[in-house]
Amino acid sequence: QQPVQSPQAVILREGEDAVINCSSSKALYSVHWYRQKHGEAPVFLMILLKGGEQKGHEKISASFNEKKQQSSLYLTASQLSYSGTYFCGTADTGFQKLVFGTGTRLLVSP
Amino acid sequence: DTGVSQDPRHKITKRGQNVTFRCDPISEHNRLYWYRQTLGQGPEFLTYFQNEAQLEKSRLLSDRFSAERPKGSFSTLEIQRTEQGDSAMYLCASSSTGGSYEQYFGPGTRLTVT
Questions:
Q1: Per-residue pLDDT for chain B (114 aa), expressed as one digit of tens each?
Q2: Contact A102/B at CB under 8 A
Q3: Does B25 contact chain A (CB < 8 Å)?
Q4: Which A residues 32-71 touch B at CB under 8 Å?
Q5: From the CB of residue B16, how many other CB atoms can be counted at a distance below 10 Å?
Q6: If contacts are CB pairs under 8 Å, which of residues 44-63 in chain B contact chain A?
Q7: By CA distance, what is A29's nearest residue in B?
């Protein structure tokens, strides 16, 4: 079943913060976060693994609550380049396919 | 590190024709995934390979779809007898099994079936 993301859309002014949530009904091994701009491929932002390991871009932070099967992506001091659609992708084993969430559209205005 | 590449970037075809797409993964990655994405939706899994072995196929992958990775390097995705519903962005991603699990996507092939 597809993970549910919230909010569906958010508008920020440059410099503001945002939190994007991803909730799954299944036990998860990992959560992957991507940003996609219109007409382009998803760009990897962050991976969070069961057990606490995570890897990603320096300016991006995220959390993974394994018990609640939820993850949150924290965008601080937003920049215009942060605009796009954010997807979480979840996997229930280490090397399996990703099931992508419903997406969150983010617009950062000057 | 040259990233994942896909060819062609765009393909327009008439209904009923066959099309083939190519994906070249990041050189040291032995896992390769195909996804399909339609407008406004997240990518949907189609199939994946570890080296040359195809390990899983989605129910979305009808008999008209076939994928290969003959030498464990590049992969091809073929769609036979295309239908208008096949119009989508076809994305390829690759990952390593050497301790990192993140998948890196290529630029995609946008297919339009007229």
A1: 579 999 999 999 999 999 999 999 999 899 999 999 999 899 999 999 999 999 989 987 889 999 999 988 999 999 999 999 999 999 999 998 776 688 999 999 999 999
A2: yes
A3: no
A4: 32, 34, 40-44, 47, 49, 55
A5: 10
A6: 44-45, 48, 50, 56, 58
A7: B101
CA–CA min distance B80, chain A (Å): 24
Contact A22, A71 (CB under 8 A): yes
Neighbouring C-beta atoms of residue B82, cutoff 10 Å: 21
Tokens standing for residue B42: 């997240």
> pLDDT by residue (tens digit) across A55-105?
887 778 999 999 999 999 999 999 999 999 999 999 988 667 899 999 999
CA dist list (Å): B113 to A27, A36, A46, B52, B84? 38, 24, 34, 29, 5
CA distance A26 to A76: 29
